[in-house]
Design goal:
InterPro entries: DNA_primase_core_N_sf (IPR037068), DNAG_N (IPR013264). By secondary structure, the chain is of the alpha/beta class. It has two domains: about 140 residues, DNA primase, catalytic core, N-terminal domain (DNA primase DNAg catalytic core, N-terminal domain); about 120 residues, Dna Topoisomerase Vi A Subunit, Chain: A, domain 2, CATH 3.40.1360.10. About 35% of the residues lie in helices and about 15% in strands. A six-stranded mixed β-sheet has the order 1-2-6-5-4-3. Helix 1 packs across helix 5. It is globular and about 60 Å long. The chain starts with 5 loop residues before the first strand and ends in a 10-residue tail after the last strand.
Length: about 280
């Protein structure tokens, strides 16, 4: 039985790539993925603990669930599969294992996690991000789960093709922080160190001409933001750094202020312009 490739780095588990079924060109698998995401959304609507986690992070917008199809994997998907007849259950399990949402062991990839699906500008699934909300059970458990196809993509990728100015964050939670406070021109990568040529290619073929890098204030985040800034400016995309207080990122910042919408807008106005460099080594 196929098990998607898995790597683990500290508290992040990455599953890649998702293998589509060749005989149906992925259409049947896509249908199953959609049904699972819908189930996770309904689970989130009724799970008080998961909703409390979002509220604790300040993510309380009324349209959040429907706009982004957020969900919660409460470990009950297997019980739903058992309600099917044997052939149906085995067919669905095979599809879920094939795309990586279900492990060979029967455990859900996103078990115990809030699920943030990622779609391209046409609404096709690209993958998703999972944030577990319970304490780690073992030293091998991970809070963050990255699940994606062979091609990279942004969370809220449609914004990349709708706006000329883009706020770029390192996680869906941070992107939704901006979105909940009125900034629709926001997208996110999966982690601050994941920006590669595929992300760059998407931006090159988009409407974006100015990127606000809002990655956070730690040294690794700032170093990575500088690397990305070099890549973007070298490709004629203007860059500004959003500067947070020491130790803060977008989400941590809004939880410390009384008027998040006003303060986030102020951060954009006070962002630092990254000078375009002509020639030289862009890796430094």
């Amino acid at each position: 039985m196929y098990e998607p490739h898995q790597t683990q780095n500290q508290d992040v588990v990455i599953h890649q790539p998702i293998v589509r079924c060749t005989y149906n060109d992925g259409m049947a698998d896509g249908l199953v993925i959609g049904q699972v995401l819908d189930y996770y959304t309904e689970t989130l609507r009724s799970n008080v603990k998961a909703q409390a986690f979002l509220q604790l992070r300040g993510l309380c917008h009324a349209d959040l669930l429907t706009q982004f199809r957020l969900g919660f994997a409460d470990r009950t998907l297997g019980l739903q599969l058992h309600k099917l007849d044997y052939l149906q259950e085995e067919t669905v399990r095979g599809a879920l294992q094939r795309v990586g949402l279900l492990k060979v062991s029967g455990h859900e990839l996103f078990r115990g996690a809030l699920v943030f699906p990622m779609f391209d500008q046409g609404g096709q699934i690209l993958g998703g991000y999972g944030r577990r909300i319970t304490p780690k059970l073992t030293s091998q458990s991970a809070y963050h789960v990255h699940w994606h196809f062979e091609q990279s993509g942004f969370f809220n990728q449609k914004a990349v093709f709708e706006f000329t100015e883009l706020i770029l964050c390192k996680s869906p939670i941070e992107a939704l922080t901006w979105w909940c406070h009125g900034h629709r021109n926001v997208a996110a990568t999966l982690g601050f160190a994941g920006f590669d040529d595929e992300y760059l290619s998407i931006l090159q073929n988009s409407l974006v001409r100015l990127v606000y890098l809002a990655f956070g204030s730690s040294r690794p985040e700032l170093v990575e933001a500088k690397r990305i800034a070099h890549l973007l400016t070298h490709n004629d995309i203007e860059v500004r750094f959003v500067l947070f207080p020491q130790g803060a990122d977008s989400n941590a910042f809004v939880l410390t202020v009384s008027d998040p919408a006003k303060e986030l807008s102020l951060l954009l106005r006070e962002s630092l312009v990254f000078p375009k460099k002509t020639g030289g080594d862009y890796g430094q």
